[in-house]
Each structure stands twice: as C-alpha cells, then as structure tokens.
Specification:
Two copies of one chain form a homodimer. Chain A is α+β, with helices and mostly antiparallel strands and 767 residues long. Chain A has a domain of 283 residues: Beta-galactosidase, Chain A, domain 5. Chain A is 27% helix and 23% strand. Chain A has 19 helices and 37 strands. In chain A, the strands form eleven sheets. The first copy, chain A, has a nine-stranded antiparallel β-sheet with strand order 6-7-8-9-17-13-12-11-15. In chain A, strands 18-32-33-37-34-35 form a six-stranded mixed β-sheet, sandwiched between helices. In chain A, a hairpin with a 7-residue loop joins strand 30 and strand 31. At the A-B interface, strand 11 and strand 15 of A face strand 11 and strand 15 of B. Chains A, B: One of its GO terms (cellular component) is cytosol. Chains A, B: This is Glycoside hydrolase family 92 protein.
C-alpha cells in the first residue's frame, strides 16, 4: 500500500470518528477536567495555570498551615496539592502548587475575600464561620484549564481565578457591604509546621500595590518567593497581625502601631488584611506576580504579563495557550470519557516542571545567587524518579525544544550546586534528594541520543559521570566497589542497585554516541550490576549482604524493609528495562516469565501488604501490580519480550480502562508530575518507551481511533487504529508508512520523520 | 599683627612643644589606643578595622549568643561591642561591631582556633576548658589601629587580626598538633536571643574556600550578611553541627550525613569546624570577606582587597590609611595622655557610619532590593540622635566629601523606604527607629548650609519636610496641631517637642538658603514650639497635658517617666540650641541662668536618680550634668550666651580632663558612634557647634597647644594656644588671621578659607 492510500484510509477513519462524535474540535480545552485526580491520592489541583506556568492559582481546602501549636497533623499527605475534593470548605486561594507529588511544599500567598466582621484566622472545616474560610458546593464550582470559579457560600462572594506564566489574577464579586476584606495570609502554606515560615517581608507601596517575599524552610530547605500584589481598587485601610511568638525588637520602640496602616512589615508569621466598601456585585480584582529573584522583578513580571485589568482576556489568552499545547496531538476515540482522559492527561503532563525565571531572564540558582538564563528557559521542580520514565520521553516527541531547555536547566543546576551532582528531586533553587537513583542521566542521555539537546554534549556526559561517581551518595561507593549495595548498609539497597544499573546503562549509551569508549566500557559494565542482586532461589531481586549471601528474612509481598523503595519485590524485581531479554533468561526463560507476569496481574495482594504501598489507593492496584506508583510502569510491556506480546496489548488496555477515569477520584495514585499521565498518553497512542536512552518505543494496544501528532519540525506523525473497539484490543498488524512491520517497536527517528502508523485491531490475540 | 608674624609665633610655639616632647610624628597611629572605652560603659571594641570599614574584626568576651535556652541575660547591655575588658576569656573573633552604641546587634561570623579535642560549644567564662573559648591575659594582648594580637592561653595559640574595608584577615600561630581546629560559629552574635538567628547558609566550595550568609532578626529586623572565607591551607576535613531545634526535612531523607564533609549546609543555628595538622609555630591564615548583597560579591571583595596572603602588608596598608586620616589634624599638647585621648578620639570618630557597598558599587537598600551607588559611597549605621550634634559637623570640616556621601546615603534611604522618612537610626538596610527626633534634617541642613553636599538641595529639603510632617511618627501629629506633644499621649513628650523644634529650625535655615519662603515660614514658626513646654513656675521644661495645664506630678531629678528620653529635666530643659538667647530670657535672664547652670555642674545627683540615667557610669556625670549621654553636650557652651563666657572655658576644660582618660575605662559613657569623641576633638581645639544648621562654632578653651587642620580644599587652618597650661584655662584673647575677634565664635567659612586662629590663654578669667 502506498502512502497516499493510507492517507485515504486515515481520512475515512476520520470520517467514521466524526460520525461517532468523539472527534475533537480545535477547542480541546473543553476536554480538560482539572478536577480529575483531586480526590484521594491523585494530588492534582483544580485551579488555574498556563502550560508549565510559574503560578498555579488554586483553592486550598485545608493544609497544615493552621497548626500553630506545632503538632504534626497526620493528614498532611492528603494536602500535597492543597485541595481535597471531599472537603466542605475553602480556606483561600494560593499561588503555587505541585501537581501529583507524594510529598509537598509551596502554597504561597493565600488570598481570601470575606465580608462582615474581620476574622484573621482560618477557622475550621467544622466551623468555617469562626474564621475567614468558607463553605462551598461543587455545584457552584467550575474548574477549567486556566480558569477556576467558585461561589463562597459563607460570604456570598463569587471567586474567579486565571493566570499568566508568572501572574495570578483574582476576580471577586462582592455583595454590597461596608465591610469587605481581602485577607492575605502570609503564614499559610502547604506542609507548614516546625517553624517552616522562616521570614516574611512586606511593603505597602501605595493604596493599591504591595510587594514582599516569603521565605520558607520546607521540602526546599532555603526557599524565597517574592511577590508584587496589585489591587484594581484602592483599599481604604489595611493591617497586619504578627503571630510570631519569638521576635526581637518587635515593638519598634513603641513608636508605631504596626498592626494598622504601617507600610513596612516583617516577621515570621504574618497575616494581612485590606478593607473596602463595595456595591452590589462590585468586582475587586487582584494581580499577584511572583519572582524567584526580587520584588522589583515581580513587579516587572506583572507589568509585562498583565498590564491591564481585563480578566476575560487573560483567561482567553491562557486557554489559547492550552489549546495550542493540546493540539499537538489531535485524537479521536470511541468514548468521550477517553477524550477527557486523554486531554486531561496532556494537561497534567504540561504542569511541571515549571518556568523558574523572570521575564528579564533572571533566576535564583542552586548556589543561591542570581543568574541569567542565557539561551534557554530555566525550569524547576524535577521529580525525576517519576518523570524520567515516560514524561521526558513524551516531551522529546511533542516538545523537544522544551525538553532541551529542561536539560539546560539541569546542567545549570549541576554547575551551581556545591555537590557537583545533577538534580535528584530539585525545586526552587534547592535539592531535596527525594527518592533514589540519579535519573537525570536518563533524561539527558535520552535527550541527546534522540537529538533533542543541542548544548555541549560532552559536558553533559561529564556531568552524568560525575554524578554517577559521587561515592558518598546513597550506597554508591559500595555499589562501585562491590557491584551492589550491601543490604546492611542501606535500607533500599536492592532498588538502588537496580536503578543505578539502569542509569549506568543510559550513561553508556550516551558515551557510545559520543565515542567516549572508556566511559562506555566502564558504565556498560556497571549496567550489568542488576545481576548481582538476583536470587535464583526465590526468583526475585533480593537484599544481599556484604559477605555475598542473600538476606534470609525476606518477604516478596511486603514493601517495608525489604530493600526496595516504594514497591515490593514482585513489582521492583522486574526493573531491568535496559535488558529485559537477559533478565527473562536469568529468571528461567520466556515461558516461566509469562507465568510470573500473569501472576503479578492476577494474584491478590492482601490488605496488610497493600497498607504499606505508598502513594496509591486500592484502585491503583491490579492484582499485585501497582500502577499507581512508578517502578512497574514498564512491566505490562515486558510481554513483548516473550512469545506472548498479545498479553501486553490486553494488559495495557486493561490498565488504561481501570486506572484512568473522569471523576475527581479518577487517578489511582499520585499523578507524579505528569508521569502517570504520560504513561496514559503513550499507551493510548499504542507504544511506550520501555527504556529511555534507547530510541525504541514498544507497541502496546492503542486506545485511540486515530491520532495526529504535529511535530516541532513541521512534520506530522499520524496513528490509526483500524477496527478499533472496546473488544478489539489485540493488534493484528502494524503498518508504518504503508509497510507492515515485523517488529514490536518503532524508533524515535521514525516518529520524528513524520508518517503514518497504522494498527489493525482484532478481537482475538494474534498468537 | 600680620599673618607672617603669627606664623613666626606659631613656629616658635611648635619648637616649644617639641621640647616638651608632646609633638606627634607623622606616625600618629602610635597614639591610638583602641582599648580606651572597652571597660564599663564605653562600648568600644579593641579589634582591627580601617577608617569607616565595613569589617570590624574584634574579640568577643561574652555575649548572649550562647543562651540556647532562650533566657534573657540581663548583662546583654554590657556587650554592645562584644568585648568587656574585665572578662577573663575570649570566645572568638567576629567580624562586625558597633562602636559605642547603647543597644546592639551584629557580631557576625565568630571564628576561633583551638587544638585538641573538638568542642563545638563556647563553654563558660568560669570553665573555658569545657568549650572552644580561651582564657587570656591583657599582658599578652596588643590593640592598635587595624591590628589586634592576643595569646590564647587555653591552647597556646597566637591570634593576630587585621583588615581592609571589606575583609577580615586572621593569622593564627599554632603549636605542633594533629588536632588543630578552626571553629566558625554561625549562631554566635551580639544580642542573640529570641530566635534572632533566622537562617544560615553555607557552601563548601573547595578544601580552602567556603561561602555563605547569615540572616538575623535583631535590632535590624531583616538583615543578611554574606561572606566568603578563604583558608591559607587546605583543611583536612570539616563538619557542621546543626543546633536548630525545629527544622523541617533536616535529614535529607537520610541520604547524607550532613555533620561531616557535606558541602551544602543550611539551618537556623549552625556551628562549623575545619581540621588541620600543624607544625610548631605554623601559621594558618583566614580571609573573611563580607558583602551586603551576595556570596559572589563577597568573593569579589576579597579578590579586590586582599588577593594574597601578606598579613604584614595588609596591616601596614590599613595603618597607613589611619595615619592619613589622623594627620588631617596634627596637634601638640601639654601631656602625652592628651595626645592619646585626642588621636583615640579621632580614631573613634572614624569608625561609624560604615561603608555599606561592595567594590562593584552594589548594596542592599532599605527596600531590600539590590542597588548600585552611583557617584557616592554608600554608608550605613546612622546613630543620628547622637551624631548630629558634633560628629557630622566635625566631618563637615575634616572630611566634607565623606559627609556628602553620608547625606547621599540618607537620601537613598529616603528614596527606598516605604515610610517616606529620612533615617532615624538605621543600619544594614533597616530602620530600627531608635531614640527620638528626626535629626537627619539637622545633618542635611548643616551639610548644605556649609556647602558640603553637592546633590539636589531642593530634593533634600523636600525629604526633610516630608519627614517632619509624618503625622503618625511619635506624637508628631499632636505637635503639628497643638505646638507640643501632650504628656498623656507620649512618654517622651517634652524631649520630643524640644527636639522637633530644633530640627524644624534646621529645616527653616535650609529653606531660607534655598529661598523656599513658605517652607521657611512654616518651620521657623514650628521651631518656636519649645516655648510651649516651658513651665515658668518650675523654671523647667515640663510635661504638659492636652488641656494646656502642666502635669502636676513632676520630678526634675528623675529620668524615668518625666517626659524626657535619657535625661532628666535639669539636663534636657536646656535643649534649645537654636535660640539660647530666647531661652535664657524666658528662664529669667542671664544672671539667673548662670546660677542655674552653676547648680547643674555642682549639685549632687543622688544615687537613686543616677541609677535611672542610661548609658553612663558614675564617672560620666559631673554634679547633675550628664556628659556620658548626649542631650546636654552643648550645655557647657551656654555660658557664652551670658555675661560669664569664662565659665564655658573652665567648664569645658574640666569636662575634657574629667571625662576622657587613657585607660580601658577611659570613657564615662557610650562613645555613641563617635559623638563623645567628636565633642572631645572640637572642645580640645577650642570651639564647638552649639547648633548644627548654624555656621557658628562657639569658643570654649582649647586643650591643645597647637593644631593644624589640613582641609580637603588644600588649605590649612591652624590653631595655637599661647601660654597654654593646665592652669591657664581661660581665654584672654582670640585672634583670627592676626585680627583680634570681638565675638565668641568663628564661622565655618572662616575655617574652610584656611588661616590661623590664635588663643591667648590666661590663668584667671577675663571678666
């Protein structure tokens, strides 16, 4: 078949889709439901933001911010994104939020409009009337891409939010009152306890502009966010409540009453208010611009991004940005729910990392100095243990220039940190060292191997090597000397050995591309270290002691204390993405391996063991396969390396259907900064990057009926699934540009060259 | 007599002085004794610094830094400069110190060398062996301008210190040991309590360079000092003790042991150590550069000011600077003690304010933004309630360009603060609002009237006016409306009314010069407000109520609660420097006033009232006249406004002799950032600026035998005192440039035009 014929087929297929009414229009924003994942463990936020925006302006329904007694609140984990769908009250709207993380920070600059008696405390969810928070109803709530609206029942105020990259735009419609207040709670924040508030500074510049900053010691150890806040209407008066328990010289020698109309404020825990008189339905608007560098930069950001007060225009501008982002992949599906899942996944996969520099190019570096990003956009918030798997490979296809900037940002991190290591989990000019491995090397190798990154490739390799040789990093010295991390030396010795081995393989692939033979040989050898923790007796990767023996006490269902991080041996033992063939052979061959995999997906994980599994709800698990967390994300594709690839196809479709839904509880685990969503997007399109660093994408079973990816290079890559249906989950044939493929993967170049990939679907497995 | 004749006389006088051996050589540093004022209430520091240097590298003998239990230590006031002469131990050497203040802050970056067992706590003065501090003896201590040396007995280490403007240079001579340590205590500081330590950040850049910053909430509310610290020899290992009680995520997820050889540290309360092996008498040197802006600027400052390791050269360079500064006035005296007092006064009057900008011109503004000082050197630490009286007038004569820069710095403060007020008591980009009045206007008016300041004079006047009309400032609204501050509205209503009236007169004088008639009239009227608090019945200024009546309960000897700040009615009632004639008339005429003044200097102040007098020792008082604090500094000169000016002459000489001595306890009160010293210098030369803002200096009685002031304009102004002796304290005649004067003052122009002022002294008053 010639290409032209295929195009005809595609065209017909398109027609068919239209008739099934699941062909999206150019306005793809309509399919984005930010509310997905806001219940239970998704940890997404429903508020307004633009793609990769610095500002995520979103409601908080409760956080630890209000525990002034210093007591640890066990619910903190629920509020990673500040909002839980089942909560009855909204505390306020703050400007920074992670999407889908399993630990947290941020929640800067909580704003809340109220009327009546001024109450400078948040109150409780049981008694919102005793504080500034308000009850609300989901019936009166709208969450769209870059637009959030809610009626605040307590005070009869309509709150609307939209944003640009660096500015949050609030619009509050008040009732008629002499006592309208806008609260700015500068001590609120996500995961706020143990003196997290380090310092806060505010200047009231005039009757409608204030500037300041908030400095915290949280997950980011040394973090400061600067702001400029402009009001559309001058406030009549203002004031500040200083809740700092310990502060030297607070009194300014009694010269001034700092609690009211005093324009220079500072302390550890401040709350401010601004008073207005309003007419019925009078709108008061606020623009809050952020900067990582200075108050003056924040003001400059505001002037550059939102010079005026046209809320609707700013909302539309952001939604246009979203449509541009979403239209990079135009799909048709059998069900509308799938369209919503797909575009919400694209939405969730365009929230993090976030732009971390001012309009003038300045940003705060890991060295706590001000830098200028020369020739790249600087990003922050890299959840690399999650995102190296599918999120960054996804960007390599749809936004390679963005992923190149991300690599540049990682290299800046490397240059600026005293540790001489690439980022592990970094955000806001800080390394928080969360999770394991050194997966920056996967992202960098993948980006260079795929031609995405245009910077100094050898310098990037050197950074990877230096990172991989940092002996004092979590057991790495042992790993380098012994080929594995002894179990008695480190609590996650097995998973780290596996992850290091994969990362080392990435470095080897990059070295190979750059003709750095010595590096290639060294790291290719290291990449086989996974073999050192395989226990033939149990058939699992297993903790191994310094003396070479395997640890006796070992439970393959348990997660805690078994040598793995956030996964049990069943899920984590299969983490050899760089060489499934060798792993399968070591595990007893293909046939035995299929049985093993079947068991994983069908066995029952008793509740006692599930309780230990982090970051997921019961929905996030299938048998003993944990989809709601990352270590096994490639596992469904491993059937491709056996004689039964059709089981990959059915399993992937099963996961797509079971793990992703349209409701607030639609995600079975943390979205993890786009990784869960990137898995969905790839798998929906019919292929997946089993081992980033390789240019291969292994086939699964497409969920879409068709897809057209518009590439940055001007080409398009289209996918069709003939005979697509809920039951036809098996792939009968794959045809690339008219030529049937006799392999189970396509390569990156084949995608980037543009063309048509045609899946012919079938109701029964093709054995 | 012609000028030439006078010069002959001068020359002869010089010869005579030489024979009396009190003629100083060009090496005037030999007469500087930084130890003067380090005992009791002087609050000076003995360590090393250059004129107006940013770094004051000086030993601490005890401070509040070590009270981790948060308990307030009543002795805090003793340690305003970190050092008390009578203390038996030295805790370490820190880099920033105020000179002679009555409240405190600073003490940044305490360094201490030790040997033997590592002890990361300071220990106690009773048991220095239990900590890193050391016993020492004054016999083994040398304090010179820009050089301090002490033997640390505990560890047999010789410590030597010197500086440049922005860099402290340490030289430690160790014994032979495998366990040499250099402690860097980042939680130490002066007046450290109540969570003053806000945040500390450190990077170990390599084995001999670290950078970081310390952020405090002290007298300066929001203050950060950045540093770069270079060691002459690589350390073998290093570590950090994090004493923060409350810190989120301190553990870095257990990935690293941050206590040892971990290069990125942050927390609220950190102590670090650096380990070495040393040979006998091996010197280890440290260079600690400071910056108000960034670590990179600190490093740049270090490279610019001390690129190498030549301790002696740096010491000499600083002492050369001092000699240049001191040689601006070359005096001869009857006694060597007077030479020491004079040049130590010049030294003390060249310590503050301090340079507050980096070698690249950047500094932190009051708005907490980074600015570049364009066309001026930016200064900080303005103790204006003290220094407007004589210190700034002194600079107008010997260093007008420096005073002009100080005025520019004040104008920058005005432009940058949200308060729209000139500085009251500001330091390190903060306003601490200490003391009363708005005496910046005195400094500015005086500088402009005397032709010192070359900036925008009308803008300066506008700033003065705005400051003087800030109604919410300490009773100012009442003062503006009623002509005085009602006693029930403010605790220091009388002294503030008096000070505002004087300040207003300064504004009027400036307005007059600038032909701003409306401003002149408004403020000239305000300048008479002192009359509104004069109580004819008691003959004192007295608290007055809103209803116009004087407060019944009133004690003219008490200091507390009588409506005055740091002074009783006897001392403060005479504060009408702008119009002594009118004041004397109101108080009953010249004759009565002489009796009144005589009483002040001769009466006895009972101990119960002395106890309330702040900032002085019993030595700081003469009768009921308090010289150890500022409000009455002009009072001895008020006899000039009666028919008995000779009493000014004898009284001034008495004060010069009684209040200034060579020993550690040589100052009877806080030196107050050079004000006490400037009083000494003026009075020693024979004249004093009774009312800055006027161009007149009123005569007293010179203590010097001769003096030559080398002016910035290239001219010289010389003073001789013929027939000078301890007994010849009375002035028979004053001859200016050969012409006998029939007035009791000279003008600023007469000084700046150069010439010769000849006092003919006498043993009896000339009535």
């Amino acid at each position: 078949m010639k290409n032209t014929s295929i195009l005809t087929v595609l065209f017909c297929s398109s027609i068919l889709n239209v008739s099934a009414q699941q062909k999206p229009s150019g306005n793809l924003v309509q399919y984005v439901k930010p509310i997905i994942g806001t219940a239970k463990m998704g940890h997404t936020f429903p508020g307004a933001t633009v793609p990769f925006g610095s500002v995520q302006l979103s409601p908080e329904t409760d956080t630890l911010s209000y525990e002034l007694n210093g007591k640890y609140n066990g619910d903190v984990y629920k509020y990673c994104a500040g909002y839980q769908y089942d909560d009855p009250t909204i505390v306020g709207f703050s400007h920074t939020h992670f999407s889908g993380t399993g630990h947290s920070d941020l929640g800067d600059f909580l704003v809340m409009p109220t009327v009546g008696k001024l109450q400078l405390n948040p109150g409780t969810k049981e008694h919102p009337e005793n504080g500034y928070r308000s009850a609300y109803s989901h019936a009166n709530e709208t969450a769209e891409a870059n637009y959030y609206k809610v009626k605040l029942d307590e005070n009869n105020i309509l709150a609307e939010l939209t944003t640009t990259t660096r500015v949050g735009f609030h619009q509050y419609t008040f009732p008629k009152t002499d006592q309208a207040h806008i609260i700015l709670d500068l001590m609120a924040g996500i995961y706020n306890y143990e003196d997290k508030d380090v310092w806060t500074y505010v200047r009231v510049v005039n009757d409608s502009l204030i500037t300041g900053y908030r400095q915290t010691n949280g997950w980011a150890r040394t973090r400061t966010v600067y702001f400029a806040l402009s009001f559309s209407k001058p406030f009549n008066q203002y004031g500040c409540q200083n809740n700092s328990k310990r502060q030297v010289y607070r009194g300014f020698w009694g010269k001034f009453d700092q609690s009211k109309n005093f324009p220079e404020l500072a302390g550890k825990q401040l709350r401010m208010y601004f008073d207005f008189k309003t007419n019925e339905n009078e709108k008061i608007q606020l623009k809050m611009a952020l900067s990582p560098v200075s108050m003056s930069n924040a003001l400059e950001n505001m002037k550059a991004e939102i010079p005026g007060w046209d809320f609707e225009a700013v909302k539309k501008q952001g939604q246009d940005q979203w449509n541009k982002e979403l239209n990079k992949i135009v799909v048709s599906t059998t069900h509308k729910e799938d369209l919503v899942n797909f575009y919400t996944s694209m939405y969730h996969a365009a929230l993090m990392p976030t732009v971390y520099m001012d309009v003038n190019g300045q940003y705060k570096g890991l060295d706590q100095e001000v830098h200028i990003a020369k020739g790249f956009v600087n990003y922050t918030s890299f959840s690399l243990w999650d995102t190296f798997r599918a999120f960054h490979p996804y960007l390599n296809i749809i936004s390679p220039s963005r992923n190149a900037d991300i690599v540049s940002s990682m290299m800046a991190h490397y240059d600026q940190t005293a540790m001489h290591m690439l980022p592990i989990w970094s955000h806001y000019a800080n390394e928080n060292w969360c999770m394991s491995g050194y997966h920056s090397v996967s992202v960098i190798s993948d980006a260079i191997i795929k031609g995405t990154y245009k910077g100094d490739e050898n310098a990037a390799l050197d950074a990877c090597v230096a990172t991989a040789k940092h002996r004092s990093f979590e057991g790495l010295g042992y790993y380098m000397d012994m080929g594995y991390i002894p179990s008695e030396k480190n609590g996650v010795s097995v998973s780290s050995t596996l992850e290091y081995a994969y990362d080392d393989w990435c470095i080897a692939q990059l070295a190979k591309k750059l003709n750095r033979k010595d590096v290639y040989e060294e790291f290719n050898k290291r990449s086989e270290n996974w073999k050192n923790v395989y226990d033939k007796a149990s058939g699992f990767m297993r903790p191994r002691l310094s003396d070479g023996s395997f640890r006796k006490n070992f439970d393959v269902l348990k997660t805690d204390g078994q040598g793995f991080i956030e996964g049990n041996a069943w899920n984590f033992s299969l983490y050899v993405p760089q060489n499934p063939d060798a792993m399968i052979q070591m595990m007893g061959g293909k046939k035995k391996f299929v049985t093993h995999l079947d068991s994983l997906f069908t066995m029952h994980l008793p509740d006692e063991f599930f309780a230990e599994t982090e970051d997921i709800t019961r929905d996030g698990i299938i048998g003993n396969y944990v989809h709601g967390n990352e270590p096994a994300h490639h596992v469904a594709y491993l059937y491709n390396f056996t004689d039964q690839p059709w089981k990959t196809q059915s399993t992937v479709r099963m996961i797509l259907n079971k793990q992703y839904h349209n409701g607030a509880a639609g995600l079975g685990g943390n979205d993890d900064c786009g990784q869960m969503s990137a898995w969905y997007i790839f798998s929906s399109l019919g292929f997946y990057p089993v081992a980033p660093g390789s240019d291969k994408y292994y086939f699964g079973s497409p969920l879409v009926k068709s897809a057209t990816i518009t590439l940055e290079n001007g080409k398009t890559f289209s996918i069709t699934a003939q005979n697509q249906s809920d039951k036809n989950v098996y792939v009968k044939q794959v045809i690339l540009n008219g030529k049937p493929l006799d392999r189970l993967y396509i390569t990156h170049d084949e995608i980037m060259n543009g063309g048509v990939l045609q899946f012919v679907m079938n109701g029964k497995p093709i054995r």
